[in-house]
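Please fill in the sequence for the structure shown.

STRUCTURE ENCODING:
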């Protein structure tokens, strides 16, 4: 088992299984199953989030050009003090957007293709406090129902789900992760984006079942 998993990786599961090698392998198998189940659910939420944000940004910056080609306007420089430095918090989104345009085929690419090329990390940081006045208030709050709190209902859950996605995408252990709490974040965000999405995940997700079968 160590030959394909590596000694350091398998040791995490051995420790959790009190050195029982059979139980440790069963625990590793469970970890891969629940990671796959979470990726299924996260895929729905990520696509739902980016499409909701695309609509909200398109309504605020109707163009032409599409907002993805107007990055210098949508993500105009906004400076914040970080320690002793002044930092443009929109520099990274502009860079992400330029890279996505290039990956999509250049400025002539369809907007939908550019949107699809943007990583979850791009969408995740659009709800941060640094973008509250420039993006949340004029545009992104419209992606959610009235009464949605930016920090509590969106930025907090999206940040935790982004961290979770990175862990499962890199096949990391979830043995000490509050998976039930992250699943609650996922369902809450999905239901705010689109109630039918939340209902769909309630029916199709395997996460709750797998939580009850942990070795």
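FILLED IN BY: designer on duty
SEQUENCE:
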């Amino acid at each position: 088992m160590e030959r394909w998993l590596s000694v350091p990786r398998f040791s995490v599961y051995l420790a959790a299984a009190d050195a029982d090698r059979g139980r440790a392998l069963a625990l590793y198998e469970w970890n891969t199953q629940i990671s796959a189940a979470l990726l299924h659910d996260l895929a729905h939420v990520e696509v739902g989030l980016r499409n909701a944000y695309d609509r909200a940004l398109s309504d605020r910056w109707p163009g032409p050009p599409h907002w993805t080609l107007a990055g210098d306007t949508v993500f105009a420089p906004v400076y914040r003090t970080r320690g002793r430095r002044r930092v443009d918090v929109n520099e990274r989104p502009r860079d992400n957007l330029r890279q996505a345009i290039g990956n999509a085929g250049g400025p002539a690419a369809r907007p939908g293709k550019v949107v699809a090329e943007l990583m979850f990390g791009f969408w995740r940081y659009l709800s941060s406090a640094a973008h509250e006045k420039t993006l949340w208030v004029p545009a992104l709050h419209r992606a959610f129902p009235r009464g949605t709190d930016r920090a509590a209902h969106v930025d907090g859950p999206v940040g935790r789900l982004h961290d979770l996605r990175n862990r499962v995408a890199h096949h990391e252990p979830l043995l000490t992760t509050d998976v039930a709490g992250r699943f609650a974040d996922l369902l809450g965000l999905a239901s705010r984006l689109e109630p039918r999405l939340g209902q769909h995940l309630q029916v199709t997700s395997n996460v709750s079942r797998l939580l009850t079968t942990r070795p």
